[in-house]
Design brief:
The protein starts with 27 loop residues before the first strand and ends in a 7-residue tail after the last strand. A hairpin with a 2-residue loop joins strand 4 and strand 5. By secondary structure, it is mostly beta strands. 0% of the residues lie in helices and 44% in strands. The radius of gyration is 16 Å and the shape is globular.
């Protein structure tokens, strides 16, 4: 089952594709992909994602990807009044992950109202900004062909983190930080409030759904 179509494809779509809101596509509120040389949210085509510094789109062995050099590049957008609360799942597929930054890497998030973000360090994964998983987390630095999934269901002790479909980490009993109501400023590829959380990676697809994903 695919996020974008009912039957498997053998290559990445190069033109417009509609989301299949059944199966894995259920509840999708953002789905970032590369189209016509730009980062596009195919769930919200009217929202503009703007590259800054050296953020770019490039071909990889797994398809067109958003590419970040780990220094100061990112994509930004404002909007997403529909993304609220602390229930849902942020997911990514990365053909390449380089070194994590000095404070790890914030993959996606906002500081509008509160800091709500999804982050990896060498020992910890952060879900909705404050829920951490430590102890048995695999360091994702310098890895290839990796899926990362961060999920929560509003309450304390509901957060989950999956690397390549496998649950990892020991839950820290803190509540996930909710996305506030209204339009928000988001960054993809870094923490919006600084430069010590920058991504060094290629990301083919990333998205957010209101559904709470499990290992299956």
């Amino acid at each position: 089952m695919s996020l974008l179509f009912r039957q498997p494809r053998t290559s990445q779509p190069q033109g417009p594709a509609s989301i299949d809101f059944q199966g894995l596509g259920k509840g999708v509120q953002m789905l970032l992909m590369q189209r016509d040389g730009k980062l596009t949210d195919v769930a919200n085509p009217s929202i503009i994602w703007t590259p800054s510094n050296n953020a770019k789109v490039k071909p990889t062995h797994k398809g067109m990807a958003s590419s970040f050099d780990g220094v100061d590049d990112y994509f930004s957008a404002t909007g997403y009044a529909n993304i609220v609360g602390a229930k849902g799942t942020f997911f990514m597929w990365l053909p390449r992950i380089g070194a994590l930054d000095s404070n790890g890497t914030v993959w996606f998030g906002t500081n509008t109202g509160s800091i709500a973000a999804f982050q990896s360090t060498t020992t910890t994964a952060y879900c909705f900004g404050s829920a951490s998983f430590a102890g048995t987390i695999t360091n994702v630095s310098n890895s290839t062909n990796t899926s990362l999934v961060f999920s929560a269901n509003t309450a304390v002790n509901t957060q989950k983190y999956f690397r390549n479909g496998v649950s990892e980490g020991t839950l820290n009993a803190t509540a996930p930080t909710a996305f506030v109501a209204g339009a928000k400023s988001f960054n993809f590829g870094r923490y919006i409030g600084g430069t010590s959380w920058d991504a060094d990676a290629d990301i083919v697809i990333a998205g957010f759904t209101t559904e709470v994903w499990g290992a299956a």
